[in-house]
Amino acid sequence: MHYKRYWATWAVLLLLTVLMIFIGNGPLPKLLLLGVLLVAMMVKAVLIGAQFMHLSSEHRGIVFMVAAGLLLVGLALFAGIAPDGVRAFELRQ
Amino acid sequence: MADHVPAHGAHPRQSFLRRYVFSTDHKVIGLQYLVTSMAMALVGGLLVMLMRMQLAWPHSSWPLLGKLFPVGMEGGLMKPEFYLSLMTMHGTIMVFFVVSLALLGGFGNFLIPLQIGARDMAFPFLNMLSFWIMVPACLVMLGSFLVEGGAAAAGWTAYPPLSAIAEAIPGSQMGQTWWIVGMALFIASFTMGGLNYVTTILNMRTKGMSLMRMPITIWSLFLASLLGLLAFPPLTAAAVMLLMDRHAGTSFFLPSGLFFGNKLMEHSGGTPLLWQHLFWFLGHPEVYVLILPALGITLEMLPVFTRKPLFGYRMTVYSLVTISFLGMIVWGHHMYVSGMSPYVGEIFAIGTLTITLPSAIVGMNMLASLWGGLLRLRTPMLFSIGSIVFFGTGGFGGIFLGNATSDIQLHDTYFVVGHFHLMIGGVTLMAIFAGCYYWFPKMFGRMMNEKLGKLHFWLTMPAFYGIFLAMHYIGLAGTPRRYFNFERYEFLANIREPQVWITIAAFLLFIGQFLFLGNFFASIFRGRPAPVNPWEAATLEWTTPSPAPHGNWEGEIPEVHRWAYDYNVPGASSDCTAQSVPAQSVPVTL
Amino acid sequence: MQQTTTENMPRPTWDGGASPFGATWRKLMIWWFIITDGLLFAGFLAAYGFLRLAAGGWPDRSLMFHLDFIALMTFTLITSSATMATAVGAAKQGNRKLALRFLLLTMVGAFAFLGMQAYEWHTLIGQGATLSHNPWGPAAFGACFFLITGFHGTHVLTGALILTITAIRTAKGITQAEGVEMAGLYWHFVDLVWVFIFTLFYLV
Known about the structure:
Chain A is mainly α.
């Protein structure tokens, strides 16, 4: 069947989701937990992009375009804004 | 594909409405954008004339204007809040509805298919939709003057809390909401246009038109569309949040403890800093959206009117790409005095000063393109040189403002006003004029009047320079921007006279533009008929009749065999070799 | 979006110039649309992160959410994405019947998700959460939560409508494989956004 890879992806995504919920309720220290969850989130996102949205079989140019456009710009936005969130908190204390 | 070509060339006659109003032809849409931007420029210019009158003669009464604006200028005297409305709308209209519209909407639409060798845009219907969403956007912006409280008055940056709380200023009543709606429509229209430009440039180029053979204008339009597509969405998010703060009681941008009209606001938990970040995340790339196509058009003129190849084409392209990339990540340099974390500010400052390197490369390539050329000082070339001059002068101001240390002194003074007007006012305006004079023959099949054009240049250039260079100086003297009257301040007694001179120069500048408008519209009907290639240029649009027919080329679309600037190739019969000339007849230089 | 871009357009007149990505101009356009739409959510989520950092404390998630219910919502959306991918695959192979069947399954998932989200909102509002206030602590939570899940919800709704139109047109044989693929890309994008919302709102 050609559709096998979709359902394999589906299984992995579900497994990851269950794992994330499980870890989220576990005793991990806060920062480590955050790191693990963010990594798992990115893995899920990449899986959806690569398998469901066929980025794995698209031209590298499109992959680069999406990665640069969405991930890099999103990261830059967050990286520029987040430090000031902390600062706003500190200034209020 | 080929079977569609004749269908395009010999198109059945369409009704007037389909042909000129709800047209899907990129050339007609481009002209619609261009004319709309001219109308908006008139409005934006009139607004600033009122402001300049107020600044030069703060106590004079203008009874006639009092009748025209019964609320804002009651009895002929301008109210401070009306001044702020004028300033806000001048900025918004000029940045978004004039320069963006003319450069991306106007020239983008007109030039992209013609210069890359395509019959039309990738999505002609989307293109038409984009224009017809822009029209209500313009109307909403203009209409906001008529709602209660008048137009928005929080500046084109719409900083909260001024823009978020209705009690803060009359303009923050319904006017600000209309402003947000107008901007939302603008963004929707721009996104449609941008998607169209990017896909068209990537996928619809004619045979042989590799990326590195594209005219520099197309490169700049491509990069500008990309920047717009990437930078506008976070502003949309911010605008939605601002709307919620205004009407749904949320506090995204509003801290606790705000007092307005003797009333404690219930908001708490937000901070205006967030708006500033999200706004400038668009706001900074937006100035590159404006200036990149302007630089592209400026560069496009140089080889044509110096009769030699563009100097450092590849390096210029790489520099423009670098500028776009860096332009996305330096938005914080507008916020040095906002209370932003100084460590982040440091990074933004370093990034900003890094941009001077690729910008200097572009500037140097412009000068080197002029060097040793056989100058033909026609009107487009004059404006192109004017653009280079503004780019250089304005760029110097940027070095001071990009540096946090000196910016803290200069922030919110007229130095900033002078700087950004030279850059996104001067460079872009000069390029728009250059583009209009240059491509007018291709638009209407007639030439614009050369004498009037030169007169227009000599009225525009010194007046523009006079205004904004002078603003640098009064800014250094400490004049804060956005004040409607400086008489109260002892230390600013010296700037009263310069203010009058600036106003007179501004009037001259405004009047000078009617020469252009008159020339433009009269030449449509009375101009000298234009040949196919009046400027002897090498790019593709000059291989089709003037004006270009529906479908752009009557026969086959020309194939491209060389880059866009093959001038004075050794062994060629003429000093300019069109891109479509095969390699067998004339050697290819790039 | 679907109708305006898939039908009645002149075919590309470019014949042999190199398309850098080997993709049709329609696919290129939908990808750029997804990038811009994704950055809209990036803006919202960055604002949420900022406000959460600035607030210092944040309401305890176990008080507000029933995680097993949220897990069910996630399951629905991921499953609908898998059925959509299958529908696209079937459409590409010319198996219209199979494509239609899986499109309908995807629609079921879409509307089920919408119903569950409505139920969740209803519960939260019933407990006193609004845009400007919530019983568990910082008011910014209510504003961010309703705004961002609301925006995602409208995307799901749009997606459901696109799916419906695509299903009808597939049944009639108007929509080709590429049309289904475009609808699929949009639908997976909606799922993608939920991955972020799920992690950042319900787990962190």
